[in-house]
Amino acid sequence: MEFFLDTADVDEIREIAAWGILDGVTTNPSLIKKSGRDFKTVVAEIAAICKGPISAEVTALDTAGMVEQGRILKEELPDNVIIKIPCTPEGLAATKILTADGINTNVTLVFSAAQALMAAKAGATYVSPFIGRIDDTGADGMTLIAEIMSTWDNYNIKTKVLAASIRHPTHVLACMQMGAHTVTMPAKTFRQLMSHPLTDKGLAGFMKDWAEVEAAGNA
Ligand code: G3P
Question: What is the residue with the minimal CA distance to atom 9 of ligand 1?
């Protein structure tokens, strides 16, 4: 299981990377906008903080434009940057071409098992089904992950399933139970995964008692 951060905020990335278990980072045009920073500058900075794959998304809508952007990003940015491509017919064709170039890709905005399978067939390194946005419509996003994982079971597919649009720790745990290869989540969810009131309470008790051990000269 790989844990990715879904953000373009370098302070958050530094904070979580310091825990030693961060495997990668995903960005998208909305997260870049939120950062308020220059796209290539911020992605290069992220790539220097985290060794794992850093997704940088193309913004062209036609195949030739996506391929051109993908090649330029790979040329100008560090080696661990991979190219995020929308799950459209044009994106599928771009994925096939960039894969043939030896460029790793992340096919994003996946909302059905069929789309995930098509992206895998085009050679995508990752496919990103969006759980939370399905939940937002009143349907169950986890059903999509279950469908994709059971489809994967039938074939020898190398493409990794990267569960995205994560809203809370329960999504992460459910993805792990279903065998999704990777989960990308906001820093808030990362922090929630590591937080438990009984850990805090237990630690406070140990510290209080240890202070008394020290005060008694027994440390
Ligand atoms: O990176 C894409 C995805 O994780 C977006 O999530 O929260 O905007 O639905 P969200």
Answer: 165
Residue whose Cα lies nearest atom 7 of ligand 1: it is 165
**Contact between residue 141 and residue 165 where contact means Cβ atoms under 8 Å apart:** yes
Active site residues: 84
Nearest alpha carbon to residue 53 among 8, 19, 101, 2: 2
Summarised one tens digit per residue, pLDDT across range 34-58 is: 999 999 999 999 999 999 999 999 9
DSSP 24-77: EEE--HHHHHHHTS-HHHHHHHHHHH--S-EEEE----SHHHHHHHHHHHHHHS
Distance 158 CA to ligand 1 centre (A): 23
Read off the pLDDT of residues 112-132 as tens digits, 9 standing for 90 and up: 999 999 999 999 999 999 999
What pLDDT is recorded for position 20? 97
Mutate to test the pocket of ligand 1, among 133, 134, 136, 145 (most ligand atoms within 8 A of CB): 133
Contacts for 41 with CB less than 8 Å, ≥ 6 apart: none
Candidates 3, 128, 165: which one to mutate for ligand 1, based on the most atoms within 8 Å of Cβ?
A: 165
Quote the DSSP letter at residue 129. Answer: E
Structure tokens at 140: 């169950």
